[in-house]
Design a protein that fits this description.
Shape of chain A: globular
CATH architecture of the largest domain in chain A: Up-down Bundle
Largest sheet of chain B: 4 strands, mixed
Order of helices and strands of chain A: HHHHHEEEEEEEEHHHHHHH
CATH superfamily of the largest domain in chain B: Butyryl-CoA Dehydrogenase, subunit A, domain 3
Helix content of chain A: 40-55%
Largest sheet of chain A: 4 strands, mixed
Shape of chain B: globular
Number of strands of chain A: 8
CATH class of the largest domain in chain B: Mainly Alpha
Oligomer: heterodimer
CATH topology of the largest domain in chain A: Butyryl-CoA Dehydrogenase, subunit A, domain 3
Structural class of chain A: alpha+beta
Number of domains of chain B: 3
Largest interface: A-B, 61 and 57 residues
CATH class of the largest domain in chain A: Mainly Alpha
Distance between the termini of chain A: 46 Å
Chain lengths: 396, 396
């Protein structure tokens, strides 16, 4: 057990920092510090391509797919420098952090060759087809159906159904979809994990306006949508295992980048508290210190998780990670509003544009819902880490 | 950077568990509680001399094993887990840490060697009857011979009545803060010094109150230099905070594990109570707190090692220590409190161990600073009181 970096790793840090600084004070200065979910989209898509060209997009991946085979320490360093430089939120994160690692682990060589280089290059963007109107926390009850059909150009999957809460679908060329491929199956059995092109007439996107006023997530309707038979990740019927594998990647190195965004939010909150004098209020000071503690704990726990390797069942530090950060950020939003006082409740501009901190207060309400609600997380922790009995189902 | 235990560290933990299982446990604990010493001399002999734990993390210059703060934290976590009663923290976690910070190399060995050899039970007398951190009740007046006279009192001295060596923090009359603090190594039975054991709510960690009535202090008993101990003492206490946090962490896990075990056995309404979400979710939240505390303790322990190696700053040490104490105090208190609640009536009885964990959690929480105090230290460290820049930012 040891902290700290070697001289070679510090040299790598300089290399990342220099490139980021050059780009973000030069061609990409307009999007430095952009945090909105769907702000400056065109420039941020161009930024993804620039990252890809310079091979900074997916440094932990094998070099043959556009990565650098970077070590854990190097990935930690890059995440830190990325945030320190004020680089914008990753438009490509669903491909880079979820679809890509899933294909890398569970996919065939042909799937890797087809999809990974284009994710790495920022040429293809992804979205996630998991939740449905009647399959939220109970994800295994998805109803979207897929059947194999023989066609003139080979076999194809034909998909019918509906997905919802699909972030960034409006910018995506591909979606990974969990769907029921075995007629009459129930629960986790009989599901398949399909990679489906978005630009086709069987796919309809309808934006959903959310609590912040932004339209970042969407409903997706599949009406005879098609994809190649070979674009099923894992064997047909084994989709649940692959889908759960994808969720595990949400606890990967991307958590470090996320923490850096949190750090920027925390710094804004402290600046606001010092500017309006609430930083001298003993109760606010305690809560700011507590927020700082949480921020550091997330870093330490992430380093534990990442140092621990990937074999076997998730260790307790990984199982407790999601509820920890989600609850932390929700409290940070509440603290931000208490620091700002009533002034935080006044919009900055039409139609419903708020400063970063009040917007974070609203946005953070989703943190304890998506990727497993706090309530589901507690079940998972109790059952998998503490060995307590599983929840009974009402329908079986 | 590798934030995971090495195989050697895992072996130390295994050995520690074995030792505590053999020499600790509920029955042995009851026996020690029934006696007057507050520890089992046979078990102490085994721990300190046969296993050499008091020397394990000592520098080789003091004939120690040369291991670090992480290994010490592992041992303390395991003794804390079963509320093992011994002066191990007082000796190796507290007194040794103060000596290493306050006495220069060359001088420190004369006190560290007997500790490392398991021949000396040591402790520290740091606060007055208020028990508040930094509130020193002992006064030292130099007499021009290199020594001087010690007056006043010290309380909350762990094992202060049986220790062979007590490190007494004393200040010049009328001085404040860190100025004019002298650390004195007082052997047992020094003329003019009397110790009386206090009747404590938590009976698993004995405190004594020491009175100094014109104690003659020779030049050889001054640790470091007269009036110069302040800053080094503060750092030494921070190192000790990390060791103490590790012991709290063990207590938190011990209380949680006991409660989880009970909830898997106890049947009501025809089900084990651990199958109810009302219970599962509380236990899950406790594990979240424990895992956060574990991340904090081992990061802080690594920071102690880095600080000693010169690769972490005094500020890093101060923050890591305060953070670990906040997390561990709260995790232990929550686990102790829930141990009683979730055991129901039996948890409220004198016979049950739940009350012992609860009381230990409470006394540990306030020792060397309650969480509010540590959070205030963090608030200062992160710059809440720094002067505002000329062009103050912030929102409105």
């Amino acid at each position: 057990m040891k902290l700290g970096f070697t001289l070679a790793e510090e040299a790598f840090r300089h290399e990342c920092a220099a490139w980021l600084e050059e780009q973000l004070s030069g061609p990409f200065r307009a999007i430095r510090g952009v945090t909105g979910l769907v702000a400056c989209v065109e420039q941020r898509l161009e930024w993804e391509r620039a990252l890809g060209r310079a091979r900074w997009s997916v440094i932990g991946w094998p070099a043959r797919y556009g990565g650098r085979d970077a070590s854990l320490a190097e990935q930690v360093i890059f995440a830190e420098e990325y945030a320190r430089a004020g680089a914008p939120g990753r438009m490509g994160h669903l491909g880079v952090e979820l679809a890509g690692p899933t294909i890398l682990q569970f996919g065939t060589d042909a799937q890797r060759e087809r999809f990974l280089p284009k994710i790495a290059a920022g040429e293809e963007f992804w979205c996630q087809g998991y939740s449905e109107p009647n399959a939220g926390s109970d994800l295994a009850s998805v109803r979207t159906r897929a059947r194999l059909e023989h066609g003139p150009d080979g076999d194809e999957w034909v998909i019918d159904g509906q997905k919802t809460w699909t972030s960034l679908a409006q910018f995506a060329q591909w979606i990974f979809v969990v769907c029921r491929s075995e007629e009459g199956s129930r629960g986790p059995a009989g599901l398949s994990y399909l990679l489906v092109p978005m630009q086709q007439k069987g796919v309809t996107i309808r934006p959903i306006r959310q609590i912040t006023g932004e339209e970042e997530f969407n409903e997706i309707f599949f009406d005879g949508a098609r994809t190649r038979a070979g674009y099923c990740v894992g064997r047909p019927g084994d989709g649940w295992k692959v889908a759960m594998g994808t969720l595990a990647f949400e606890r990967g190195v991307s958590t470090l980048a996320q923490q850096m965004r949190f750090r920027n939010e925390f710094d804004q909150l402290v600046a606001a508290a010092r500017a309006n004098g609430t930083a001298r209020d003993p109760l606010i000071r305690q809560r700011i210190a507590e927020a700082w503690i949480g921020l550091r704990i997330m870093r330490y726990s992430a380093l534990r998780m990442l140092s621990g390797g990937r074999e076997g069942a998730l260790p307790p530090e990984a199982l407790t990670y999601k509820i920890y950060w989600a609850s932390w950020r929700r409290r940070l939003g509440e603290l931000a509003m208490d620091v700002l006082g009533p002034a935080g409740e006044i919009a900055r501009a039409e139609p419903y544009e708020f400063d970063d901190l009040p917007r974070m207060f609203l946005a953070s309400r989703s943190d304890t819902i998506y990727a497993g609600t706090n309530e589901i997380q507690r079940n998972i922790i109790a059952e998998r880490a503490l060995g307590l009995p599983r929840e009974p189902r009402g329908d079986r | 950077m590798q934030f995971a235990f090495t195989p050697e560290q895992e072996m130390i933990r295994e050995a520690a568990r074995e030792f505590v299982a053999g020499h600790g446990g509920a029955d042995r604990l009851r026996a020690v509680l029934a006696g007057s010493r507050g520890y089992d001399p046979g078990a102490w002999q085994a721990l300190a001399v046969e296993l050499g734990w008091t020397g394990l993390a000592m520098p080789e210059s003091a004939d120690g094993g040369g291991l670090g703060a992480v290994e010490l934290a592992i041992l303390l976590e395991e003794t804390g887990r079963r509320l093992f009663m011994s002066p191990f923290f007082a000796t190796s976690g507290l007194a040794a840490a103060l000596l290493r910070e306050c006495a220069p190399p060359g001088q420190q060995e004369r006190w560290l060697r007997p500790i490392a050899a398991g021949e000396c039970i040591a402790t520290a007398a740091l606060s007055d009857d208020s028990g508040q951190p930094g509130a020193i009740g002992a006064r030292f007046t130099p007499d021009g011979s290199g020594g001087g006279r010690l007056e006043g009192h010290a309380s909350f001295v762990l094992y202060g009545d049986i220790a062979d060596l007590v490190l007494v923090a004393a200040r010049a009359a009328g001085s404040q803060d860190e100025e004019a603090i002298t650390l004195i190594a007082l052997p047992r039975d020094t003329s003019g010094s009397t110790a009386k054991r206090l009747l404590t709510m938590d009976q698993t960690r004995p405190y004594a109150r020491l009175v100094f009535d014109g104690v003659r202090v020779g030049a050889g008993a001054i640790v470091g230099a007269i009036g110069q101990a302040g800053a080094a003492l503060a750092r030494g206490v921070q190192v000790a905070q990390v060791a103490f946090a590790a012991e709290q962490l063990g207590g938190a896990f011990g209380a949680l594990e006991m409660t989880v075990e009970y909830s898997r056995q106890r049947v009501q309404f025809g089900r084990v109570i651990g199958s109810f979400q009302a219970i599962k979710h509380q236990l899950a939240d406790l594990l979240v707190a424990c895992e956060a505390a574990k991340s904090a303790v081992y990061y802080a322990a690594c920071t102690v090692d880095e600080y000693r190696a010169g690769t972490a700053s005094a500020r890093d040490l101060a923050e890591a220590a305060a953070l670990a104490r906040c997390c561990c105090s709260e995790a232990f208190m929550q686990c102790g409190a829930h141990a009683i609640q979730l055991h129901g009536g039996i948890g409220f009885t004198w016979e049950h161990e739940a009350q012992l964990y609860f009381k230990r959690a409470r006394s540990a929480m306030t020792y060397l600073g309650a969480p509010d105090w540590h959070r205030e230290q963090i608030a200062r460290l992160i710059g809440l009181d720094d002067p505002l820049p000329a062009t103050a930012g912030g929102t409105r």
